[in-house]
Amino acid sequence: IDDYSVWIEHFKGNDRSRAEGEEVGIVKLLLDKQEKPLGIQLLGPQAGELVSEWVAVMNGKVKLSAIASAVHPYPTLAEINKRVVGSIFAEKLYSETVKKGLKFFFNLRGRACGSAG
């Protein structure tokens, strides 16, 4: 596969990992050009506990947006799954295209709401 993206979240950024003293580990998500999951790699303590969400995603039963919007218990390692998916959506949300669109929209709105005078 030529065109794919890799998204990585390290355990060391997770509060539960810090509390347990188990900060070595990663979640690595591979997506194709259409942002469909190609694969997931989990390395670290309790990786087997984290994989169930990804099995549902890989089987097409759960969308990435469902993981991003899910409420995960705190503090748990499961938050790592949400963070890796959240980084995909954050990149889109804060893209230059979105910034330009918002700037254009608010400039229009500002003129329409201004006082006539």
UniProtKB/TrEMBL annotation:
Q: Which GO terms describe its biological process?
A: 2-oxoglutarate metabolic process
Residues annotated as signal peptide: none
Show where the Pyridine nucleotide-disulphide oxidoreductase dimerisation domain sits.
9-80
In the record, what terms sit under GO molecular function? dihydrolipoyl dehydrogenase (NADH) activity; flavin adenine dinucleotide binding
Q: Which Pfam families match?
A: Pyr_redox_dim (PF02852)
The protein's matches in InterPro entries, at most eight in alphabetical order, are given as: Class-I_Pyr_Nuc-Dis_Oxidored, FAD/NAD-linked_Rdtase_dimer_sf, Pyr_nucl-diS_OxRdtase_dimer
Q: What SUPFAM superfamilies has UniProt attached to this entry?
A: FAD/NAD-linked reductases, dimerisation (C-terminal) domain
Q: Which UniProt keywords apply?
A: NAD
Which family, according to the similarity comment?
Belongs to the class-I pyridine nucleotide-disulfide oxidoreductase family.
What is the protein named? Mercuric reductase
Species of the source: candidate division KSB3 bacterium
